[in-house]
Amino acid sequence: MDLEDASNPMIEANGTGGGAVEAPLSSTTTRKNRPIISAEPLDIEAYAGLYTGRTKINRLIFIASHCDNPTMQLEALRMAYDEIKKGENTQLFREVVQKIEGRLGPNYEMDVAWCSTIERKAEQRKEKLESELNSYRTNLIKESIRMGYNDFGDFYYAHGALGDSFKSYVRTRDYCTTSKHIIQMCLNAILVSIEMCQFSNVTSYVSKAEQTPEALDPPTVAKLCCAAGLAHLEAKKYKLAARKFLEVGPELGNSYSEVIAPQDIATYGGLCALASFDRTELKNKVIDNINFRDFLELVPEVRELINDFYSSHYASCLEYLGNLKPNLMFDIHLYDHVETLYDQIRNKALIQYTLPFVSVDMRMMADAFKTSVAGLEKELEALITDNQIQARIDSHNKILYARHADQRNATFQRVLQTGNEFDQDVRAMLLRANLLKRECNITASRKV
Amino acid sequence: MEGLVTQIQGLSGTASDVLSLQNLLKQADDSLHAESTRLPPFLDQLDPSKHSLGYLYFLEACTAGPVTREQASSFVLTIARFISSCVAEQIRLAPDKFISVCKRFKDQVLLLEEPLRGVAPMLTAIRKLQLSSEHLTALHPEFLLLCLLSKCYKTALSILEEDIFEVDQPRDLFLYCYYGGMISIGQKQFRKALELLHNVVTAPMSTVNAIAVEAFKKYILVSLIHHGQFPTNLPKYASSGAQRNLKTLCQPYVELASSYSNGKIADLEMYVEANKDKFESDNNLGLVKQAVSSMYKRNIQRLTQTYLTLSLQDIANRVQLNSPKEAEMHVLQMIKDGEIYATINQKDGMVRFLEDPEQYKTCEMIERIDSSIQRLMTVSKKLNVMDELMSCDPLYLAKAGRERQRFDFDDFDNVPQRYNI
């Protein structure tokens, strides 16, 4: 497989964190020689190996459609083809064959025979399942009916009819007798909902499952946390998503590979936390979190970038982020949140940089963030207008001065203004009331 | 006629006499009007300061018909003298006649094209007719009209300072507030103008009238100049007719306001150019131009929030002005008007923005706050009094009584409409 960009592992030089005029920030780590993992193109085999089932196929197809490199594209499509052949989903098969367009040679073309065999078998199985289910229903044996519907759900899922699958799983609800059954139903429903991208269902079924505490063993709890986190991520509630991902215990292991891999939990949780938590929460819930540490070991870049952010080495933090970005764009859950998260992280870095100081030399700050002074000035202006930084820019000397609003003056001003508004409003009200009264009197006297 | 004159001279002494005189005059009114041409010499026999009521009736009959220019100048003198010397209690017995005399006075003054002559007498007339300083008479709008036409704005301001609560005719209120708004705009007191125009636009009216439409147009423009924004919806207490129709009737102005809120000066100026005729026909072009220039001001003010110092070139770029020189002119003007606090360093071409030096620690400020508190307490008291009066009003009680909750057997009885004791 070709490398997209042949970049060498770079030695990164770290400047002091935050140059200031008044109060210098003490920096214990001045120079670090740490190889940053450069932006290697995604190792598709390794990536796909993390997942099983339908999500593997979906992810491969997603990578193929979003990738510019034709070699990578074909590699992904080839693996998707192989994976689909192991299953029974003829619709996905047709889709993948169409995308391949015969570029992979005669082995990877439309296999009509295989399709018709699968479809015939499907028909037969469906008839069998139906007759079984009908007999169970006449016999009114709850457990068998439940298993019948479950089998139906599995059958539809394997064949790609996600809507029918969801309906079948939900039907088992009436026949669930133990809490284990309920958990099973919820997990199935959650799986299908995630595949269908209907995350409101995910949230409701997660809460339903969490209400049956007896049968919840730790891996199930972890799975539910993952699902809830994904739902929050899609809803752009990054803080809640981060909290959920950070709660996932190490018992998860690889047991939820049909939805999510542990590396993903680390990445999603780490990035969302960085974008939405304040410093205390970041330290308590991420850096000091022993359980999460195991996940972070799997994705050392994320661990490094969180530590860099916390210790104010913004340049290297932003560099790690930049390197991770191309691969994150291939992730089906994260790709449309990457820009927002990155902007939020960058803004937080800028705000955090200026927080401890009374005045900041913008040239040193621009160095620390590896940007030009003019660009930095624009970014700071946006943040100041947005009231996220309380400061003013001395454009002549390129210094940023902290500015704390004078509460006393502001209060006086507001008081006088409120008094004036009250006065005006009440007088207008009295005038209107008199006018209305006059109208009433006129109409009343007319009636009389 | 002579008999009437003698009666007037005789019965103008005490209050009861004056009342009986009034009845006589009312009966004689038609004959007076019939002989209007013969009346002027009789006026000399009457003394306006003692026989005000009689003089008024005679004067009203004299001026009833059409008047030529020569007659106008003599009448103007007579009426002015009458107004200054008449007795307030007597003329308040016949307010309609007084009002019509004054209105004709105004017409004659305008006919002679000397509105300035009418300003002072009209002011005196208002003071004599008013029952209290909170009372709006029909003469108020006439007075303001004369002030506008004679560009005598300062005198008008003294009247505008008074709060109005009692109104005879709604139409008077509309005209008063509209003219008052225009005068305040002329004096650059935009806050007062906004208040007056707001009163017109939100006044209860069953149908939208032309005064409200014109007032709304000015209201939008003044709102842009003073606040930098225009609230898209009228407040809830505005009449439903106004809420529905005013915006459609003033379409170009509403679009101007939305273009203003987008913040691009070039677009705004293009829009103004395109619709110049419409604005000009409404006599609002000057105000529109002021609105456009206020946009530059607002942009510069926003810069003071973000920057401590900024070069004139940068200001020109950000506010979309053509050159640093223009930026300097704008900033200079704003400093003079007290809209921003800054110093210009011409050597470096830098502007340094300063904080508002007001510390709220001086005696004047304390006095100001104190008087504000007193004023608010008075207004609150007034509000309470009105509330109490309203709760005793039989109409209100009947309606509230009909729609009240019924929790008890007694609640099913009717609210007593009146007590027969």
Structural overview:
The complex is a heterodimer of chains A (448) and B (421). By secondary structure, chain A is mainly alpha-helical. Chain A has helices spanning 44-49, 54-66, 70-86, 90-100, 112-139, 142-158, 162-171, 179-196, 199-210, 218-234, 238-247, 262-276, 279-287, 290-298, 300-310, 314-328, 338-354, 362-368, 373-385, 407-447; strands at 10-11, 35-36, 359-361, 391-394, 399-402. Chain A has a 3-stranded antiparallel β-sheet. Chain A has a two-stranded antiparallel sheet with strand order 1-2. Chain B is mostly helical. Chain B contains 22 helices and 5 strands. Chain B has a 3-stranded antiparallel β-sheet with strand order 3-5-4. A two-stranded parallel sheet of chain B has the order 1-2. The radius of gyration of chain B is 28 Å and the shape is globular. The interface between A and B is large, with 36 and 45 residues.
Oligomerization: heterodimer
Low-confidence stretches of chain B: none
Strand order of the largest sheet of chain A: 3-5-4
* Poorly predicted ranges of chain A: 1-38
Helix content of chain A: 55-70%
Distance between the termini of chain A: 98 Å
How many helical stretches of chain A?
20
Give me the secondary-structure category of chain A. Answer: mainly alpha
Number of extended strands of chain B? 5
Computed Rg of chain B: 28 Å
What proportion strand of chain B?
under 5%
Per DSSP, the total helix count of chain B is 22
Strand content of chain A: under 5%
Supply database-style keywords.
heterodimer, A: 448 residues, mainly alpha, three-stranded antiparallel beta sheet, two-stranded antiparallel sheet, 20 helices, 5 strands, 66% helix, extended, disordered N terminus, B: 421 residues, two-stranded parallel sheet, 22 helices, 68% helix
